[in-house]
Amino acid sequence: MSFLEQFSARAPLSIATGGFSSGSIFGGNSSTITPQNAMRLTTVFACNRVIAETLSSISLDVFRNIAEGKEKAKDFSLYRLLKLQPNPNITSVMWREMIVQDLNLRGNHYSQIVRNGFMQIIGIYPLVADNMEVKITQAGKRFIYDTGSKKVTLSSLEILHIPGLPSDDGITGLSPIEYNKRALQLGSTAQEFGINFFENGANGSGVFEKDGKLTDEAYERLKKDLHKNYAGMKNSSKPMLLEDGLKYSKMSITNNEAQFLETRKYQKEDIASIFRVPMHMINSLENATFSNIEHQSLEFVQFTMLPWIKRIEQALSISLLSMKEQDEYSIKFNVDTLLRGDYKTRTEGYKAMHMIGALTINDILKLENMNTIGADGDERYMQLNMTTIQKIKEGVTNASTKN
What we know:
- The structure is a single chain.
- With 403 residues, the chain is α+β, with helices and mostly antiparallel strands.
- It folds into 3 domains: 175 residues, no CATH class; 75 residues, no CATH class; 64 residues, no CATH class.
- It is built from 14 helices and 11 strands.
- It is flat.
- The N terminus is likely disordered.
């Protein structure tokens, strides 16, 4: 069997599920933090969702390099796979969200590259990162994937590997969850404390006073009555029926409860810093103003999204394009959609670029997803009162000569 025949015979691998750890954030051992149950922490879920949905909302295109710049390579087989549907089972949006989730939780993403006998890519299938092992051999990088029923060895031509922040070996990426377990453990413990606190509503909220001592019978009856009729959130607004001269005094918030609220706030900020997500993007608006939200949103694009975008673009180009194709094609996210700004800011920018001849009318219409106006819209315009520095120098020299 020839090399191409061997390659074309590789069908998409079955995906073995990674499974959930027995240590759950809600029940079980709260100190066990895994990529699966870390998503049950609301801040982890929110941060992951913000980054994943932001990246998946950006257009991903394949461009052909031409003399004038670049154009969309709609006739290239890879174009539709990346833009719309990498395989018959999922859309491009879902696939990109899976990539971000793997990178945020596990530090690595793997997809199987399926080619035909002509080495053309006909499908890209995401794999479970937890089931992949990477080895370096004399023949190059090898990927060993556990399908659940068997282990399959694949070459670099068959695997798209996108690592996150590089680990010490420079081959795989670091898992943010693994390296920040202690912070996440504190967050999960605080979350469990909050659940228990509100489930048991009457803990430490007040005291009963009575002149003299309760009998054992009265004490047991009071304890049973409190547990049955007044504990829990559903009973929190019920008036208490007291007997035998008992008085109930409500307590202000205790130091422990105040510290719990402060811990929850701190942990939310701490976890958000792991993913570099601004607090206002996960619905924490305590210190937000109109002006600083605008700047923080811009910083989110520049310092959070752009590094991810560049990392993914390069991995896609190296794994999906041959060296010859890399000279002819490029794979790019349309980052401009994240930097568009409001309508007034965009129109002022378009006007400035149009007046210096950098953008045509058709260029502006395309940026706004509007129909062009034909050949007349391709004309470039400049103000008549503008000239080059060289011509100004020549004019000054000519005037001096005449004098």
